[in-house]
Give the backbone structure.
Amino acid sequence: MPSMVEEPTMVLLARHDLKLSAGKLAVQCSHAAVSCTLRARKSHARLVERWMNGGGRKICLKVDDLESLQRFAGQAQAAGLVTYLVKDAGHTEIPAGTVTVLGIGPAPRRTIDALVSELKPY
């Protein structure tokens, strides 16, 4: 059995400054999770299969603002991780095009932990 640090995981980094309702946050995180999974299946099919068979671990963490979100996106992309930035359609709480959530992974837990260890749960 693989150790916990080897198990694949996904993180969803949500902007805390937007003060989204719980329902809106859930939907935005869902967009990120689905899109990351679909992207990862193309390039990392076996990792995605391991991740899904292991329960599809996802953690929602908070970032302060758009600048922080973009910094993490750049770091994740530089590390070769699958990422997806959610831009809202603007039908409900926030203006169209607002970047709300960054999905990263699935990827080995140790790799993701090294990137986001300073962040707190949302």
